[in-house]
Specification:
The complex is a heterodimer.
Chain A: E1 2-13, E2 16-27, E3 31-36, H1 42-49, E4 57-62, E5 65-66, H2 72-79, E6 82-85, H3 97-108, H4 113-126, H5 142-154, E7 160-164, H6 172-187, E8 191-195, H7 199-205, E9 208-213, E10 216-222, H8 223-228, H9 233-238
Parallel strand pairs in A: 3-8, 3-9, 6-7, 7-8
Antiparallel strand pairs in A: 1-2, 1-4, 4-5, 9-10
Chain B: H1 2-30, H2 37-47, H3 52-75, H4 83-121, H5 124-130, H6 135-172, H7 178-186, H8 191-217, H9 222-258
The chains are: A alpha/beta, B mainly alpha.
């Protein structure tokens, strides 16, 4: 069953036509990798799935809901079912790590402060961030900020997670940690879309991979299919060939 | 040339439209669930308490300078006795509210635009939206309400301090008796003298908060954009305070005459 459908998606920035009719679907519980060179509009596409951007033409449908037609106020409800893991973490720098994680819980749940505390401490422990509750984001390393951002994004237990380059700039150990985490979440039935340039991670966690090129999805297939086809665009991209 | 003029005019209309839409959203979302009293109180502290030293210095100097100027000017005609009334009315009706609003526009307007602009650049505003919450409720409304409460209080404080500044100069430089100065100031002072100045403070609060929030939220091109938005916020708020002051004075004048 398709949970997310993107149909004839077109988007222009100034005179530059970035998307010229993107089409793809994501099935429930699936992890779709979105690959493409820099400037092909992967992040814009990802942002459009949660309504942070709107297509000029085309449709973005989530669970039968037409995201592209919704007002900002109507989108609030849909966004509670989705999580967006920003590339840089997008942490609130005026709040501590604890308050960053507490933000969605305080906004959308009726949990008591004690319950919130228990949930946050467990989440921080799972992400290897124990003891950093009172630290402000500015005092964390890039990798730690990314992990806090991810921890905050998934603390509400979303149905869909949109990862925007979750492993970019991380050391191998942190990359492995994020990769394991994505796999763990996937095992719980979460649907996810992963925008990445990190090919080993993409091949390790994605069920299918789509290649964005020249404003369109030029190739899409399962990891097995891509690995079998030497001439496939995605395989060529993975091997660093100029396309 | 025509193209540049047309672009500037379009940009101006966009700005006016944007401000109008933001004001509408603020009004609508103010009555919705999800506003935080703690955030509003924090902003009142940030805007009000932290502006106190600046307002204090500006107000005391305004009062003192006005007393000195009126004193020197009127001394030649033996009109020193009119200084207390002139200074007090000028402060209450114009100088207190306008100078305070200009100082706050510079300090708070710049602060709001740069803070929100930085949040846009670092995707914090996107994060607020992505988590199903409203940046209007979490960021804009606390600042608008903070200004709406703190600026009138700052103006009331500035009026009092300016009066003291004038009194100090009246006593030390113009050799007026302190009791005489106070009595002369308050005698014949109508409540409308105070209200016409104080009433403007609520409009000034909106002239500062809404454009500054709008410019911050619409930052483009990274940190360069933050700098541009900050400068624009100060210029726009100051112009709105000065131009708005004329129309508000006219409005209050009509109301006074009518009542």
């Amino acid at each position: 069953m398709d949970l997310i459908t993107v149909r004839n998606f077109e988007k222009k920035f100034g005179d530059k036509q970035v998307h010229k009719g993107v089409n793809f679907t994501v099935r429930k519980g699936e992890c779709l990798g979105l690959l493409g060179g820099s400037g092909t509009g992967k992040s814009v596409l990802l942002r459009s799935l949660i309504g942070l951007e709107r297509p000029d033409i085309g449709e973005v449908i989530f669970d039968g809901i037409k995201i592209h037609e919704m007002s900002e106020n109507q989108l609030f409800k849909v966004r509670k079912r989705m999580a967006y893991a920003f590339q840089g973490g997008a942490l609130f720098d005026s709040m501590t790590v604890y308050d960053n994680l507490a933000y969605p819980l305080r906004e959308h749940t009726n949990l008591t402060e004690t319950q919130i505390k228990d949930k946050i401490l467990k989440q921080l422990e799972d992400f290897g961030l124990k003891g950093n509750e009172k630290v402000f984001p500015g005092n964390l390393s890039g990798g730690m900020q990314k992990r806090v951002g991810l921890a905050r994004a998934i603390i509400m237990g979303p149905e869909v997670i949109l990862y925007d380059e979750p492993t970019a700039g991380l050391d191998p150990s942190n990359t492995r940690m994020i990769q394991d985490l994505i796999l763990r979440l996937k095992a719980t039935g979460v649907t996810s879309i992963l925008v990445t340039h990190d090919m080993p991670v993409a091949f390790a966690v994605c069920d299918r991979i789509a290649m964005l090129m020249e404003g369109r999805v030029k190739a899409i297939g399962t990891v097995e299919e891509i690995e079998r086809q030497e001439t496939n665009l995605i395989a060529q991209f993975a091997q660093g060939e100029t396309l | 040339m025509n193209q540049t003029l047309a672009d500037s005019f379009r940009e101006f209309l966009n700005f006016l439209g944007g401000i109008g839409l933001l004001a509408r959203d603020v009004f609508r979302q103010f009555f919705r669930k999800g506003n935080s009293l703690n955030l509003i109180i924090e902003q009142i502290f940030q805007i009000g308490h932290r502006s106190l030293p600046l307002v204090l210095v500006t107000a005391i100097c305004t009062g003192a300078v006005m007393a000195l100027q009126f004193g020197l000017g009127l001394q030649r005609f033996g009109g020193t006795l009119y200084v207390p009334r002139l200074v007090t009315v000028s402060i209450l009706r114009e100088m207190g509210p306008v100078f305070t609003a200009l100082m706050v526009a510079a300090r708070v307007g710049a602060g709001i635009a740069s803070e929100i602009g930085s949040m846009v650049v670092t995707q914090q505003i996107d994060a607020i939206r992505a988590m199903g919450t409203s940046p209007i409720q979490k960021i804009v409304i606390p600042r608008v309400i903070g200004c709406f409460i703190a600026i009138p209080l700052l103006i009331a404080f500035a009026n009092f301090v300016s009066f003291l500044g004038g009194l100090a100069i009246g006593v030390t430089e113009l050799n007026l008796d302190a009791q005489f100065y106070i009595l002369k100031s308050l005698n014949n002072l109508a409540i409308s003298d105070y209200l016409s100045g104080f009433g403007k403070s609520f409009f000034f609060a909106l002239f500062i908060a809404i454009p500054s929030c709008y410019l911050g939220l619409n930052v483009k091109n990274g940190t360069t954009g933050v700098g541009i938005a900050t400068t624009k916020a100060v210029v726009t708020s100051s112009i709105l305070v000065l131009v708005g002051d004329f129309f508000l004075t006219k409005l209050f004048w009509i109301i006074e005459t009518w009542t």
